[in-house]
Every structure is written in structure tokens, then in C-alpha cells.
Design a protein that fits this description.
This is DUF1211 domain-containing protein. GO terms for molecular function: potassium channel activity; proton channel activity. It catalyses: K(+)(in) = K(+)(out). It is found in: Membrane. This protein is an all-alpha fold and 217 residues long. It has one domain. Helices cover 74% and strands 0% of the residues. It has helices spanning 6-33, 46-54, 57-82, 89-115, 121-146, 159-169, 171-182, 187-192, 196-211.
Length: 217
């Protein structure tokens, strides 16, 4: 059932947005909590310190990748909720499933970064599945918000704009799926594939910016 009282629905939309923002904030914070200060025993030396920090490189890579992946989805979620004028039960549940995928990110990121040096594929595949889950639920959320049948938003009647958002939302999952496939050939080349995310993002932005500059106002 769609809620129609203007003041009440605005209050409820704010509650949904604030709850979602809190989940994003906690998930991003938990990423750094997984990285512990190196435990170095006497006698202390700079060489020991550098060796200990070197052992944390994988965890920092996981932190940076996950930070920007979560950040990208938060930016998209923030923009998408800017179009909302209404809500219904379907939106609440899809948003909740989407947030579940975000909550899982600190664990899957830590699992991946803990064992990536060992050359194991299971942690990478688990991480990829998490990213794909996030991408799918993000895509589903966009479909619900932009569907005129539900009458939940204004400003999303342009299907080209919706298609632009859909394509952007699927960049990370597709790149991570590609990385998972590459891992069966060369695991470290698969890690390098993560760098494709910003390149595809820039390419899609430029493609749409030329034809539809108003999307970026």
C-alpha cells in the first residue's frame, strides 16, 4: 500500500534514507577495523616495521577497493533517493536486501584480503559473489524506484537516464565477474582487473555526457 500523506511520507522517506546512510557508514568504518596494528617484538627496527607493514598490503588493497565500491553505491543510493516522493513495502524490502549486501562487504573484503597472497580462489570468488549480490540488488532497487506503475518518484521518466544509471550500477559486478574468470588463468592478473572499474565508469560518463549533459547537472 502506497502512503500518501505528504508530511508523514516525507518523514518516513527521511527515516529510510537515514537508516540506509547509517548502514553505509558502519560498513565503511568496519573496513579499517579489520586492519590491526602490526605486532612487532623487540628488538625493534625500521626493517622489521617495513616487513610487518608489507604483510598488510593485501588488507589495505582490500580496504581501498571495498571503500570505493561501497562509496560508489552510496553515491548512487543518495542520488536515487533524491528522486523518491513516495514509498511502499516493495521498496522497503528491496532496499533492505540491498543493505544486507553492503553489511556483508567488510567480512568478504577481509576474507579476500587475508588470503589473497596465498593464491586461493575461494576468497576472491566469495568477494565477487558479494559484489554481484550488491550490484543485482542495486539494479533491482533502481527498477522499483523508476517503475511508473509504483508511482514512487519524479524525474525518472526519461528511460535513457534510467538506462544510464542501470549501466553504471552494473560496472563493478561485471568487472568482478570478469576478474573471477581471469583468476583461473592468472590470479594476480585477476586482481589487476579491478582497475578496469574507473576506466569503464569514465567511458560511460563521457558517452552519455556528450548526448545528455543534463544528466550530470
Amino acid at each position: 500500500m502506497i502512503k500518501t500523506d505528504t508530511h508523514h511520507q516525507r518523514f518516513q522517506l527521511d527515516r529510510i534514507a537515514l537508516f540506509s546512510d547509517a548502514v553505509f557508514a558502519i560498513a565503511i568504518t568496519l573496513l579499517i577495523i579489520e586492519i590491526k596494528i602490526p605486532d612487532i617484538h623487540p628488538p625493534f627496527s625500521d626493517a622489521k616495521m617495513l616487513d610487518a607493514l608489507g604483510m598488510l598490503i593485501g588488507k589495505f588493497i582490500g580496504l581501498i577497493v571495498s571503500f570505493f565500491v561501497i562509496g560508489r553505491y552510496w553515491i548512487f543510493h543518495h542520488r536515487l533517493f533524491g528522486y523518491l516522493t513516495n514509498y511502499n513495502g516493495k521498496l522497503l524490502w528491496v532496499n533492505l536486501w540491498f543493505l544486507l549486501s553492503i553489511v556483508l562487504m567488510p567480512f568478504s573484503s577481509a576474507f579476500f584480503s587475508e588470503y589473497y597472497i596465498a593464491g586461493l580462489r575461494i576468497p576472491l570468488i566469495f568477494y565477487v559473489l558479494n559484489i554481484c549480490f550488491t550490484g543485482f540488488m542495486n539494479f533491482r532497487l533502481l527498477k522499483v524506484v523508476s517503475n511508473p506503475k509504483y508511482n514512487l518518484s519524479t524525474g525518472l521518466t526519461d528511460r535513457t537516464k534510467v538506462r544510464f544509471y542501470q549501466q553504471r550500477s552494473m560496472i563493478a559486478p561485471l568487472v568482478f565477474m570478469f576478474a573471477a574468470l581471469v583468476s583461473f588463468i592468472n590470479l594476480y592478473l585477476a586482481y589487476a582487473a579491478f582497475l578496469l572499474i574507473p576506466f569503464f565508469s569514465i567511458w560511460i560518463n563521457r558517452h552519455y555526457r556528450k548526448k545528455h549533459p543534463t544528466f550530470f547537472n
